[in-house]
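Researcher: Let's do a round of design. I'm pasting the structure tokens now; please hold your answer until I've finished.
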């Protein structure tokens, strides 16, 4: 039975956060429940961010926020409108994008354009999009746009 639950959790991109309590659970308990993070970073006020993206099969990027005293503050899906609104073209730096929405599904180099583009599969509502975050060589966000996910289009899930 436990194997079936773990398999279902892995397939849906969900995390077993029900056993974790903000303000009570420790970083060690988060790691025990959720496993090794894809990325460990620093957040505002000395917080530690543990990143758990569900790519490529899921379309969420979870940040487990750990306070300086080692306690869980929250677990948040960062691929949502309030967080995306924090990304400012010609202002936000690469490190800030990592802090706001986490590691990308894919990072691609375009040498002739002198650009690096990060892909984030977005939740389908009802259409499925990919967020593309484009950086110049100086690490500044230069373009930000969403395009219909070509993988979903080929499967007939465009929503159109």
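Researcher: That's everything. Go ahead.
Model: Designed sequence:
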């Amino acid at each position: 039975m436990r194997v079936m639950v773990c398999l279902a959790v892995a397939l849906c991109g969900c995390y077993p956060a029900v056993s974790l309590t903000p303000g009570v659970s420790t970083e060690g308990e988060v790691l025990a429940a959720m496993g090794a993070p894809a990325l460990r970073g620093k957040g505002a006020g000395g917080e530690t961010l543990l990143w758990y993206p569900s790519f490529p099969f899921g379309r969420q990027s979870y940040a487990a926020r750990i306070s300086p005293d080692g306690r869980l503050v929250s677990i948040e899906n960062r691929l949502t409108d309030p967080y995306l609104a924090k990304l400012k073209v010609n202002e936000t730096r690469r490190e800030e994008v990592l802090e706001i929405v986490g590691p990308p599904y894919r990072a691609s180099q375009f040498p002739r354009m002198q650009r690096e583009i990060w892909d984030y599969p977005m939740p389908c509502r009802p259409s499925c999009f990919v967020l593309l975050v484009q950086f110049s060589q100086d690490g500044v966000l230069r373009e930000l746009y969403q395009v219909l996910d070509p993988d979903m289009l080929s499967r007939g899930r465009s929503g159109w």
